[in-house]
Amino acid sequence: MAGNSARTQAVQNITNRQPMPPKAPQSLASLWASDVFTLSKMKECLPKEVFKSLKKTIETGAELDVSIADVVALAMKDWALSKGALYYAHVFYPLTNATAEKHDGFISVQSDGSVISEFGGKVLVQGEPDGSSFPNGGIRSTFEARGYTAWDVTSPAYIMTTDNGATLCIPTVFISWTGEALDKKTPLLRANAAMNKAAQRVLSLIGHTDIAPVNSSCGAEQEYFLVDANFVNNRPDLLLAGRTLFGASAAKGQQFDDHYFGAIPERVQVYMQDVEQQLYRLGIPAKTRHNEVAPGQFEIAPFFESANVATDHQQLLMTILKNTAKKHGLVCLLHEKPFKGINGSGKHVNWSVGNATQGNLLDPGNTPHANTQFLLFCGAVIRGVHKYGPLLRAAIATASNDHRLGANEAPPAIMSVYLGSQLDNVFEQISNGEITGSLNAGVMNLGINTLPVFSKDAGDRNRTSPFAFTGNRFEFRAVGSSQSVAGPLVTMNTMLADSLNWVADSLESQLNAGINLDGAILKTLKTLIDQHGAVVFGGNGYSAEWHKMAVEERGLRNLKTAADALPVLKEPDVQELFEKLGVLSPVELASRFEIYAEQYILAIEVEAKLVVGMAKTGIYPAAVKYLSDLSATLSSLKTNGVELGNERLVLIAGLLTSMTATADTLSATLAKHDFATIEEHLQFCAQTIRPLMDEVRQFADELEGEIADELWPYPTYQEMLFIK
């Protein structure tokens, strides 16, 4: 138990903490989307023709008629004022994984000194935040500040409330004065448009005439940790880096498998219910909550939504998780690996594509062998992952995500596709040149009359696969907990668009050569799986055998660190992919490499400085004090005829000397800044700085097990993970 004053006070604060006052529960009907300017609210307050025009743009992607902006702005303002809003904000998503907002008041001062509320179409459609103070990767010089936000009509406006008021929030894109995308939303909208265009080609070629716009959908499972704020406030590493840079494992961790899906602690459940009420008011369909594998770890999962809206909602979800935690005396940690030795946190992105006329295009039905539409789209995904697997890896490459990829809690850095036994068999038949049938999914009969007989799924799950088919969608399991889902979605939609265009080209070529449609489909699928089937793997992704086979026999790349993966963004085939589909220009793509590389380097440098500081100013004084006390005690005992020996003194002194010397080396190494390229700097951080940090930690964590608990300066794993 804590002994030093700060740790003792932290535990006492938690012990004496008063629970949050209870709230009367509200019905789902009264909560749902009550703070969202939904289509139904627009219909109530907009003229019929204006509403029809706006609805067409939202639902079909038709060009926005900017002449209606004044009418929409007036209705939006009146609705916001009725909710108590005095300000509006253009909300955008710069290349930081965070959300940005520029707030302006509705207030307009009149010549007689009175005020009115004012909000016109011009300010709805366009805003102007400072474009130079956000990451831009060299697109703009520091002295060139102009940037624009532009209204994204496809993502609904909403009200964010605090205890003192409300703000109308308007989702927007963020671009530079010269027109380049400085955000994550613009490329996502472009990628979805490219995928829709390619999908329409394929659907038309296989005989469909009534084809609604094709959209991608996303449901992102969010994992997170909750730690009492009293502990976090005494951990500089958690405050500034989001993870513990020191900390010996507690005697009990997750080895009993007793936390996963266990009974949710009452304090946490109250927090979750508070979060969910806020999410429902914002129209965010939170569906699932449960304990995760590690102690102190939890998960929330929303229902599927269109990818653009889901991305906006994901950003809101992370904001609400963190802000609500503060009200409950907690801190929500979204870092991928806040605690060494137990599971880290990911964000499994469930992704599919479909439309209103053909439905979910990745739904195999009961007889996938006969569902050629599904096989073409599924095959296109397989081709995309094989051809652009390194790009997928680069899309989830961060300093924090490196801590979990490849461990027994997360998929490996090698991108492969899991299909399950039924689809494996179907694509094997295709490779052999003839499709004969699908394996029967079967039923589950437990042999007990009181228990139901139910249908089994066609295939098992594979938790070691980074890209797994899970029934009617693919699950990208390697995305990091703290990441925006926009980057992965941009990559998946773009690679799918490229593959669907390849499918369409193949079908057109064969149909023009006189081959009938069924023959053209089978030949296209056979060529596809023969060329790209190497990416399909259903075994243990953690095994050394797979890692060797993947690289040496199948030609897949194992990009173990972000330093290895980020340079993929500079490769010619990646540049060509994004440029030809109009998703990212070469300048925009180059800027992203610069930004993400800089973020990786800065993250490592911040952590390294924290390691040096905490080792020297926290752990070193505690160890010296203990050595002094222990030496004095042993000397006193010896004077009184009790000889205990000084082995413990020697051990602690040796660990302390090693820790301090390594910390000094780390500090000196951080001073190096003469690198020929960014790639060289990335590798220096990954291969030199990180190992030195780990070495300092090794000595410090051993010291934690030797020094008197009352002297240890920082809250321990036992306290942070188990005291709630």
From TrEMBL:
Residues 1-18 have a biased composition (Polar residues). Residues 1-25 are annotated as: Disordered. InterPro entries: Gln-synt_C, Gln_synt_N, Gln_synth/guanido_kin_cat_dom, Gln_synth_cat_dom, Gln_synth_gly_rich_site, GS_Type-3, GSIII_N. Residues 195-619 form the GS catalytic domain. Residues 86-179 form the GS beta-grasp domain. GO terms for biological process: glutamine biosynthetic process. SUPFAM superfamilies: Glutamine synthetase/guanido kinase. GO terms for molecular function: glutamine synthetase activity. Belongs to the glutamine synthetase family. This is Glutamine synthetase. It comes from Methylomonas lenta.
